[in-house]
Amino acid sequence: MRGGGDMQSIWGLYSVEKNKLLDTVKWDDKGLAVAITQNVDTGAILMQGFANREALTTTTSTRKATFYSSSLWIKGETSMNFINVHNVYLDCDRDSADELWRTLEENENKSRAASEMADVLYHALVLLAVKDVKVEDVFQVLRQRFSKSGIEEKSSRKST
Prior knowledge:
Elements: E1 7-9, H1 15-23, E2 33-38, E3 45-51, H2 53-62, E4 66-68, E5 72-74, E6 89-91, H3 96-105, H4 110-130, H5 135-145, H6 150-156
Antiparallel strand pairs: 1-6, 2-3, 4-5
Helix pairs in contact: 3-4
């Protein structure tokens, strides 16, 4: 389980410290957060799912990727194809778009802008991988938008 941006490792923390760190997670209204597993050597996305506090606690104690959908489940529990967790990182900024705007508003330096944009691109690439969308597909959409105003472009989108 891993995130981009300013990340803090959860390994090596005592249980009191882990609880404090878990208190900082930006849980949604159902008590869930996105959890992404990556190959430790290649960085390839293995799986994306949701985790609640109990799933993260179980992951850190068993070192097996644990998720939550309608109940707690350990990846590989039935197939024996476990995802063994080497480390858990929490995305400490938890809101890349907000950080980008803050970087602009506070007129921060190039290094900070590059760092925040790296977070955005990382999360965008994770989304593309999870949804099996090629970067070229995104470029094709952008090419179609270049000659249109924002109003024209939005009105030309297909209704879903």
